[in-house]
Structures are given as structure tokens and as C-alpha cells.
Amino acid sequence: MHLYGTDDGRTSTLDGPYFAASKDRPAGLRALSHYEVGWVRTVTFADGMQKVQPIISTYAKPLWRSLVKKYDGVDGMKLVTQK
Fold first, then answer.
1. Residue 82 lies in a domain
2. pLDDT tens string for the chain (83 positions)?
3. Is residue 19 a part of any domain in this protein?
């Protein structure tokens, strides 16, 4: 993940994607419906303090099962940085 601006010592990680059927969903991410994909963003500040934020994307139609199978359990940072 690339962050732009003046470096103030923060780092950011993105964990996911998580789906309704994901068995390893983190405790901070609520149960998801078949219309949602969840991620967890963690920002670590220079002093070591962390801010954890769940991110939930909602879709008008259910996701294809093939998509859920393809990305379930994939490390979010690897997924974002793949070309």
C-alpha cells in the first residue's frame, strides 16, 4: 500500500478480504451478509498507538461463489499489491 504526503511515522496495514462464510474473521469485524465484503485497516502511529477500523463494502447483488473461493483467506496486502 502506498501512502502519500509528509512522513509522520504512521504505518498502515489492510487485512482481508473477509466474506460471510469466512471462518477466520477477526473479532473486530461484525458478521457479514452475502452482499458484503469486509476488511480491517490498522494504522500504527509513531508512538506505537494503533487505530483499528473495520471497512465493509456492500453490493446490490450477492457475490459469485467463485470470487469468494478465490480470495477467502488471502492476505489483504498481498492481494492489493498484486499486478
1. no
2. 566 788 889 998 989 899 988 888 888 899 998 889 999 999 999 999 999 999 999 876 666 666 666 666 655 545 555 54
3. yes
- What domain range includes position 21? 11-72
Total domains, the chain: 1
Q: Is residue 3 part of a domain?
A: no
pTM: 0.66
Do 68 and 37 form a contact (C-beta atoms < 8 A)? no
Domain-embedded: residue 39: yes
Instruction: Write the DSSP string, the chain.
Output: ----SS--S-EEEEEEEE-TT-SS--TTS----TTEEEEEEEEE-TTS-EEEEEEEEE-SSPPPHHHHHHHTT--HHHHHH--
